[in-house]
Amino acid sequence: MANMTDGLQWRKAAASNGTGACVELASPEAGVILLRDSKDPQGAVLTFTRTEIAAFLDGAKAGEFDEFGH
């Protein structure tokens, strides 16, 4: 039985430092975004809507999560 994530184009940020401490995103269908830990590609996959991802990115760009990056 095939995994629902088989064959997807996973993307991670160009700023990724190569240590595997990154998340990757894929979109299997319109309006759906999948997120996984790049260190564990066979592990848990979280599902979000495009609206949810956009809200998170807007918050990140505005500095709302800066305290978690240090």
Explain the overall architecture:
It comes from Catenulispora yoronensis. The protein is 17% helix and 21% strand. By secondary structure, the protein is of the alpha+beta class. It has a domain at 23-69. It has 1 helix and 3 strands.
Helix-strand blueprint:
Blueprint (H helix, E strand, L loop, with lengths): L22 E4 L5 E6 L7 E5 H12 L9
Antiparallel strand pairs: 1-2, 2-3
What percent of residues are in strands? 15-25%
Structural class: alpha+beta
| N-to-C series of helices and strands | EEEH
What is the helix content?
10-25%
- Report the mean per-residue pLDDT as an integer: 87
Our count of helices gives: 1
| Cα-to-Cα separation, first versus last residue | 41 Å
Shape: globular
Rg result: 13 Å
Flag low-confidence runs.
none
Oligomer: single chain
Largest sheet: 3 strands, antiparallel
Give a count of the beta strands, DSSP E runs of length 2 or more.
Answer: 3
How are the strands of the biggest sheet laid out side by side? Answer: 1-2-3
